[in-house]
Write a structure and sequence with these properties.
Elements: H1 2-27, H2 45-51, H3 56-66, E1 70-79, E2 82-90, E3 96-102, E4 108-115, H4 129-138
Antiparallel strand pairs: 1-2, 2-3, 3-4
Domain PepSY: 53-111
Biased composition (Acidic residues): 128-139
Region (Disordered): 110-139
Length: 139
């Protein structure tokens, strides 16, 4: 009877440890922490643009190497306190992926796989066909 009791207590201890490990792991979340090369101290957009060392076109080239497709949005962003280009890329299958490119090195820091819910053809750099038609009418 002593062996059964020891086995039971051992099983309870092991299951408790596994449960605690699962709780700790689940608390860390699924988001990757991005570490870029340009630390942001101020948030205003005018200030952000003075800090970049990589052009938007260079960032787009890096993003398209990681995710082939058509760029539909490019924006300077604060990601975890670092300056990055947030780039959305539409793939041939219609899915839209988000790519974070370091504004200091041009290195791809994160790719969030696409979904089919996002923006569709006709969008480029956050502008859609209606914006372009409005611009043409203004001329």
């Amino acid at each position: 009877m002593n062996i059964k009791w020891t086995a039971f207590i051992g099983t309870v201890v092991i299951l408790s440890c596994l449960t605690m490990a699962g709780v700790v792991y689940s608390g860390t979340g699924d988001q990757a922490i991005i570490e870029g090369t340009i630390l942001i101290e101020r948030q205003d957009k005018a200030h952000l643009s003075t800090l970049v060392k990589v052009t938007g076109q260079q960032a787009i080239s890096s993003a398209l190497e990681a995710v082939p497709g058509k760029v539909i949005e490019l924006e300077l962003e604060n990601e975890d306190g670092y300056l990055v280009y947030g780039i959305e890329v539409a793939s041939a299958d219609g899915s839209v992926s988000s790519v974070e490119v370091d504004a200091g090195s041009g290195k791809v820091l994160l790719v969030e796989p696409g979904n089919n819910e996002g923006k569709q053809e006709g969008l480029l750099f956050g502008r859609d066909e209606e914006d372009e038609m409005d611009d043409e009418q203004d001329d």
